[in-house]
Amino acid sequence: MIDIHTHILPGIDDGAADQAAAVEAARRLEAIGVTHVVATPHVIPGVYANDRATILAQVTHLQAALDAAGIRVCVLPGAEYYVEPELPEKFDRGMLLTLNDRGRHLLVELPATGVPSYVDQVFFDLLVRGVTPVLAHPERNRELAARPAKVYRLLQKGVLIQVTAGSLVGLFGRDVRKAAELFIGHRWVQFIASDLHGPGGRLAALGEALPKLTALLGREGALKLFEENPRRVLDGAPPVEIGRQKEYRPPGGWFSRLIGRMSAGN
Question: Are 29 and 3 in contact (CB under 8 A)?
């Protein structure tokens, strides 16, 4: 497996507290079959000011520690950017760190409760620069979980979707689990990742999610989300689709469907 969203770098965000925790997380990843991880520390203005140089140096340092410990996990560079209007300009200035530093895919997170009005413009401006936004854990965004049609609309515009493994196994509650299952069942999701913050429950959920994902997509589809698509992103290539993407149809009669269409446009 390849994990494209981890907070494994020690001491630079709310992830692994120190090197010992980072090494232990890598050891547990290796035990469940993970061969590569992308270190994606938070970059949040005024909170976590991690820059390219800091992240790249930390990746090199952690990889050396894993090699010394005999842990066969390859650590690759990346970051998780909190969405802000300045992201496209920062990309132009060479400030952003894309997944595996390939210049093609940017991991972006939204606020937990809603979707800022400028998100569509930011994503459009990245896409015209040849950078594809990878939206981190939309199932954990309250607005997107309640209005799935908005996720489908972003997908149709070229945004890619990453779901957290822990969401599938109920780590974040029933509503998040149901949203994750809906997004996956509609073939909207291209990646499953741990979003681990150390050697805890989110890491363990990566292995636990595989049978649940297999039940939703079949073995071949599950492996595309766990292995093939992450590997393609590491190479800077577009992911493969997991069957035909379905448009969201709200349950219920014509009135519910009308509300769904109105929600998609807001």
Answer: yes
Q: Band of the pLDDT at 255, cuts 50, 70, 90?
A: very low
Entry pTM:
0.93
Show the domain range for 40: 2-264
CATH number of the domain residue 57 falls in? 3.20.20.140
Phi, psi of 77 (to 5 degrees): -85, 150
CA atoms within 13 Å, Cβ hemisphere of 54:
16
Contact assessment for residue 235 and residue 52, using Cβ atoms and an 8 Å cutoff:
no
Q: Residue 244: pLDDT band by 50, 70, 90 thresholds? A: confident
The closest of 168, 233, 231 to 202, measured between CA atoms, is 168
Q: How far apart are CA 232 and CA 251, in angstroms?
A: 35
Q: 11-43 pLDDT, tens per residue?
A: 999 999 999 999 999 999 999 999 999 999 999
Cite the beta strand spans of 95-186 per DSSP E.
105-109, 132-136, 160-164
Q: How many independent structural domains does the chain possess?
A: 1
Q: What are phi and psi of 44, to 5 degrees?
A: -130, 115
265 CB-contact burial (10 Å; exposed 0-12 / middle 13-18 / buried 19+) = exposed
Average pLDDT over residues 42-59: 97
